[in-house]
From TrEMBL:
Residues annotated as domain Damage-control phosphatase ARMT1-like metal-binding: 26-424
Notes concerning its domains: Subfamily III proteins have a conserved RTxK motif about 40-50 residues from the C-terminus; the threonine may be replaced by serine or cysteine.
Keyword RNA-binding: no
Keyword terms of this UniProt record: Hydrolase, Manganese, Metal-binding, Methyltransferase, Nickel, S-adenosyl-L-methionine, Transferase
Cofactor(s) needed: Mn(2+); Ni(2+)
Species of the source: Poecilia reticulata
GO molecular function: fructose 6-phosphate aldolase activity; fructose-1-phosphatase activity; metal ion binding; protein-glutamate O-methyltransferase activity
Record-stated family: Belongs to the damage-control phosphatase family. Sugar phosphate phosphatase III subfamily.
Name this protein carries in UniProt: Sugar phosphate phosphatase
Role played: Metal-dependent phosphatase that shows phosphatase activity against several substrates, including fructose-1-phosphate and fructose-6-phosphate. Its preference for fructose-1-phosphate, a strong glycating agent that causes DNA damage rather than a canonical yeast metabolite, suggests a damage-control function in hexose phosphate metabolism. Has also been shown to have O-methyltransferase activity that methylates glutamate residues of target proteins to form gamma-glutamyl methyl ester residues. Possibly methylates PCNA, suggesting it is involved in the DNA damage response.
Pfam families recorded: ARMT1-like_dom (PF01937)
Source organism superkingdom: Eukaryota
Enzyme Commission no: 2.1.1.-, 3.1.3.-
InterPro entries noted in UniProt: ARMT-1-like_metal-bd_sf, ARMT1, ARMT1-like_metal-bd
Length: 448
């Protein structure tokens, strides 16, 4: 059976068919709120559109508001989903996916917001937002304000983190293996908890990082439900080759990014540490090719964040920013944004639906997946039992050793100990969606 096909033992997709479920509440409440805020943002930028594009900008603004309002009404009244009509490079792929969803539903009911898989309709909403914002304002990022605010509101934490990185790098040469792994674990956890700062779960409400990211780690330790850091460390060390050994030397770690703002800074700091410690020689970053899930990283966010860090009036921030820019100039770091990351597919479909991307990931020694949406796609956003193995839920998606760094914000979680999920439900009924808990969950060859 092809990977991703519904087979024996594969549970149903999460959807709003279950009244009162997190998917139901997201589609009923949070997604319309996100659309309302998008309409408001576009309206507030009307003058900007006029200044830049004259009357054409005004008519595009009016059209965007009308299309987004129509979209919100379709969503709130559970209308059938509509084919995309904007003729962009991914339009056909989206419409084919819709037909695939319709085939799975059969001809008894039409693909719609509250009946189709949550993963699909939520991704579809963001692609419809893209369709609504037409030329000449099509490059306007309706979520940009929230992403830049998250960065500016987190300055104290960013400065503390860049200072910490600078201190570590000053003594890098003298560090023992144990000290190196300690710093690695700390920065891996900082990147993990950076994922709390996600504007989709907060429906755009500001949620920047205020406290010092390093000092808060000990108090967060007990909220890490699965911690496979040791497997990540062993994988990195097993892939390191001595210079000139003639063996594979292009040690490469891929980071599939999630949110801009503070979370992106934590990922850049981790990536800098991986390179400056020699744990990796190249980092490939994977972002989104259009605005996605409110706070996800686009190429513009990636470049803007590095430029802002370079320009900071803070020694260690600007030092980090210049270092990151030179990594990019030297090709040690590279940024990629394959269209697959802004499509609705479960990752077990990647080999079939985006073989080029799957082949790229196969060249990595380790792939880090940041955040909740990536976790939902890794596990197919299905109602797995909590003690089901991560490997089972991946359903054949294993391009390379991989690790999810995710704070829980959706009710899908696998790979727990028997009874662990039930225990958590009694202690904290909203443990899967309140963002307090996290996993560092690895899948790959077992190493000693
Ligand atoms: O991927 P991220 O940024 O960690 O989270 C994305 C997210 O906020 O969006 C959905 C809720 O609307 C959930 O999948 C998840 O909570
Ligand atoms: Mn996100």
């Amino acid at each position: 059976m092809a990977a991703g096909q519904i087979g024996y033992g594969v549970p149903p997709s999460l959807s709003a068919k279950v009244t009162g479920s997190f998917a139901y509440l997201t589609i009923r409440d949070r997604m319309p709120t996100i659309l309302t805020k998008a309409v408001d943002t576009i309206h507030r930028n009307k003058n900007k559109f006029f200044e830049e594009h004259g009357e054409e900008g005004i008519s595009a603004e009016k059209q965007a508001i009308s299309l987004l309002s129509k979209l919100r009404n379709e969503l709130q009244t559970d209308k059938p989903l509509l084919e995309l009509m904007d003729g962009l490079s991914d339009t056909e792929s989206w419409n084919q996916y819709m037909q695939r969803q319709q085939r799975q539903l059969g001809d008894q009911e039409l693909v719609s917001w509250f009946k189709s898989p949550w993963l699909y309709v939520e991704c579809y909403m963001y692609r419809r937002i893209q369709e609504a914002i037409c030329p000449p304002i099509n490059n306007f990022d309706v979520f940009n304000e929230g992403k830049t605010q998250s960065f500016f509101e987190s300055q104290q934490a960013v400065m503390a983190l860049c200072t910490y990185l600078g201190d570590v790098q000053k003594s890098m040469e003298k560090l023992s293996e144990n000290q190196l792994s300690e710093y690695f674990n700390k920065l891996l956890q900082v990147s993990l908890w950076g994922n709390k700062c996600d504007l989709s779960i907060s429906a755009g409400q500001e949620n920047s990082q205020k406290a010092s990211p390093i000092d808060s780690l000990p108090s967060l330790q007990s909220f890490i439900l699965v911690n496979d850091s040791n497997m990540v460390w062993l994988t990195l060390n097993s892939s390191r080759r001595p210079e000139g050994s003639g063996q594979k030397t292009a040690d490469r770690v891929d980071i599939v990014l999630d949110n801009a703002g503070f979370e992106l800074v934590t990922d850049l700091v981790l990536a800098d540490f991986l390179v400056s410690s020699g744990l990796a020689r190249h980092i490939h970053f994977h972002g989104k090719c259009f605005p996605w899930f409110v706070s996800d990283v686009t190429a513009n966010d990636f470049q803007w964040t590095i430029r802002q860090t370079m320009a900071a009036n803070h020694k260690w921030m600007s030092k980090s920013g210049f270092q990151w820019q030179s990594y990019l100039n030297e090709g040690i770091w590279s940024y990629h944004d394959h269209p697959f990351w802004t499509q609705p597919h479960e990752f077990c479909d990647m080999a079939a639906d985006a073989p080029d991307l799957y082949a790229t990931l196969q060249e990595a020694d380790l792939v880090l997946f940041k955040g909740d949406l990536n976790y939902r796609k890794l596990t197919g956003d299905r109602a797995w039992g909590h003690a089901v193995d991560f490997c089972t839920a991946l359903r054949g998606f294993e391009p390379a050793p991989l690790c999810s760094l995710r704070t829980l914000k959706a009710n899908v979680q696998v790979g727990l100990q028997l009874g662990q999920g039930e225990k958590l439900s009694t202690e904290d009924p909203s443990w899967m969606t309140n963002g307090k808990y996290a996993v560092i969950q690895f899948h790959g060859p077992k190493l000693e």
